[in-house]
Amino acid sequence: MTSINTNAPLIAGRKEQWSTRVAFFIAGFSVSAWAPLVPYAKARIGLSDGTLGLVLLSLGIGSIITMPLTGILAARFGCRRVLVLSTLVICLCLPLLATVSSLLLLMATLFVFGISMGALDCTINIQAVMVERASGKTMMSGFHGLFSLGGILGAAGVSGLLSVGASPLVAMLVVIAVILAVLLRAAPHFLAYGSQNQGPAFVVPHGVVLFIGLLCVIVFLAEGAMLDWSAVFLSSTRQVDPAYAGLGYAVFALTMTGGRLLGDAVVRSIGANRVIILGGLCASAGFALATWVPAWQAALFGYALVGAGCSNIVPVLYSAAGRQTVMPEHVAVPAISTLGYAGILAGPALIGFVAQISSLNLAFMIIAVLLLGVAASGRVLKV
Fold first, then answer.
1. Which residue, 186, 275, 316, 349, is the most exposed by fewest CB within 10 angstroms?
2. How confident is the model over 252-285, as pLDDT tens digits?
3. pLDDT tens-digit profile of 355-371?
4. Burial label, 234 (beta-carbon count in 10 A; 0-12, 13-18, 19+)
5. How far is the C-alpha of 112 from the C-alpha of 86, rounded, in Å?
6. Which helix (H) or strand (E) holds 221?
7. Hey, CA dihedral for 299, 302, 308, 312, is it positive or negative?
8. How far apart are CA 191 and CA 20, in angstroms?
9. In degrees, to the nearest 5, what angle opens at C-alpha 321 toward C-alphas 249 and 373?
10. CA dist., res. 3 & res. 261, Å (int)
11. Taking Cα atoms as reference points, which of 195, 197, 192 lies closest to residue 81?
12. Within a domain: residue 195?
């Protein structure tokens, strides 16, 4: 198969912008649909907590292995082909995740699911960078907002179906129907190419790309802390009933989603650098508030600040990756995504290690200090 002509004129009209939003929605909707199935898979196969943790790592390993290669595939075959193929593979994986009763088969399915999610995640950001740049408008926060919205709707929708008696397989078939319906409408408007710049297929991240990637690691670390440790903190440190401890992540997710949906207007109003500075300060203050004030209500408010603060930093950083000239976007975006995802994978384990040898309070304060470093970077990074 011949490679895609990367010198073709980039068209980024409303249909291409809309299709990019749909692609982000599909990514968030797909990955969140798996989350409510985890307890079912655990019970069906009879996994211990420790074994389940190792099984879930298969998804992350699949994603992180694929991300550096995705730019090569997108540049050669175009975003459209990679987006469609990865989405179809996800649709094939979901029914298996709902039904398999073999440990090895579950791990293999999660690995393939992770490969597909990694390819989808990187490619939507490659397309988003090109579409935003060609449009001349700030759009990245809105794109990422659709990912967050898809995540909320996917998790809530599957949980709702399961709560009214639907089987995991039926719930996944509904999810697949939704994904295929929106994919059918959007696919013709995905970009037929994966890069507007000629360049090497793979380069070790360096210069400003490495700097942006490290900033993403910190922000993704903060997001991972909310996902994996916010409920633990509320129940073990603030003595909140475990049945309500999930409110912490819910508050974080809501402010994160709202912040991203409003983010494009915010970036246009105050500028990208101020978004990084104020966002880093806000998120850092959120962790500090949750840690220092011994009241569960303060922790919830702190989580809300973390969500609002972090919401637009990563979208702004991806936009910066599209404007830098050190590396072409089809190489830079996967490099940044890989570094950031490494933060998601390693972060919760590192937080657990610090909590084990000291306290979860200290782990949260370390993240708060790192976020101050992100805020400081807003004064020097050209975004």
1. 349
2. 999 999 999 999 999 999 999 999 999 999 999 9
3. 888 888 999 999 999 99
4. buried
5. 10
6. helix 207-236
7. negative
8. 9
9. 55
10. 35
11. 192
12. no
Percent of the residues in the chain that have a pLDDT greater than 70, as a whole number: 94
Task: Report the domain count for the chain.
Answer: 2
Q: Residue with structure tokens 């979860």? A: 360
pTM of the predicted protein model: 0.85
CA distance 228 to 174: 27
**CB-CB contact of 225 with 355 (8 Å):** no
Residue written as token pair 């420790």: 50
How many whole angstroms separate alpha carbon 63 and alpha carbon 133?
26
Give the range of the structural domain holding residue 36, as residue numbers without chain letter: 14-189
CA dist., res. 174 & res. 170, Å (int): 6
Cβ-contact 88, 165 below 8 angstroms:
no
Pick from 88, 77, 76, 154: which is nearest to 115 by CA?
88
What is the residue type of 137? K
- The C-alpha atoms of residue 342 and residue 221 are separated, in whole angstroms, by 9
- Angle CA(73)–CA(77)–CA(81) in degrees, nearest 5? 95
**Which pairs with CB-CB distance under 8 Å and at least 24 residues apart come from 295-299?**
295/238, 296/234, 296/238, 296/239, 296/240, 299/233, 299/234, 299/238, 299/248
**Does 355 share its domain with 316?**
yes
Report residue 8 as tokens: 């073709």
**Residue 84 · residue 187 · CB < 8 Å:** yes
For residue 314, the domain's CATH number is 1.20.1250.20
Q: Cα 162 to chain center, whole Å?
A: 24
Q: Please give the structure tokens belonging to residue 88.
A: 């179809």
The verdict on residue 2 lying in a domain is no
Residue 228: inside a domain, yes or no? yes
d(CA 237, CA 256): 24
